[in-house]
């Protein structure tokens, strides 16, 4: 019996991967996501490999997962893939306290964020 399968929300030429609870602020993660939006996946992987941002390794891992999903689950050609979307969402925020002068305390916020990467197969222009 069971439930009916949920219909696919993406087009047949698209695949996605999501990395959740990355320990970085959404603002900083969005800078790295902006680096790869609209690029071919080979160029995006190279950019992430040589980026000096700490979180670039986790974003690269997510992009590689999206590429693997496209190749293995949807039979898309890896050489024709581009990064169609890379959007960032807010996660939880851990609140911590730091001791300050004269017996006071101040709040430290440690944000988490999520990234969703969608790759799309496009035909080469002749």
TrEMBL record:
Keywords, ordered alphabetically: Ribonucleoprotein, Ribosomal protein, RNA-binding, rRNA-binding
Entry's Gene Ontology cellular component terms: cytosolic large ribosomal subunit
Any matching Pfam family: Ribosomal_L22
One of the record's GO molecular function terms: structural constituent of ribosome
Any one Gene Ontology BP term: translation
Presence of the UniProt keyword NAD in the record: no
Family matches, as PROSITE patterns: RIBOSOMAL_L22
Keyword match Transmembrane: no
Function: This protein binds specifically to 23S rRNA; its binding is stimulated by other ribosomal proteins, e.g., L4, L17, and L20. It is important during the early stages of 50S assembly. It makes multiple contacts with different domains of the 23S rRNA in the assembled 50S subunit and ribosome.
PANTHER family per record: CHLOROPLAST 50S RIBOSOMAL PROTEIN L22-RELATED, LARGE RIBOSOMAL SUBUNIT PROTEIN UL22M
Assigned protein family: Belongs to the universal ribosomal protein uL22 family.
HAMAP family: Ribosomal_uL22_B
Oligomeric and partner information: Part of the 50S ribosomal subunit.
Protein name: Large ribosomal subunit protein uL22
Native source species: Ancylobacter novellus (strain ATCC 8093 / DSM 506 / JCM 20403 / CCM 1077 / IAM 12100 / NBRC 12443 / NCIMB 10456)
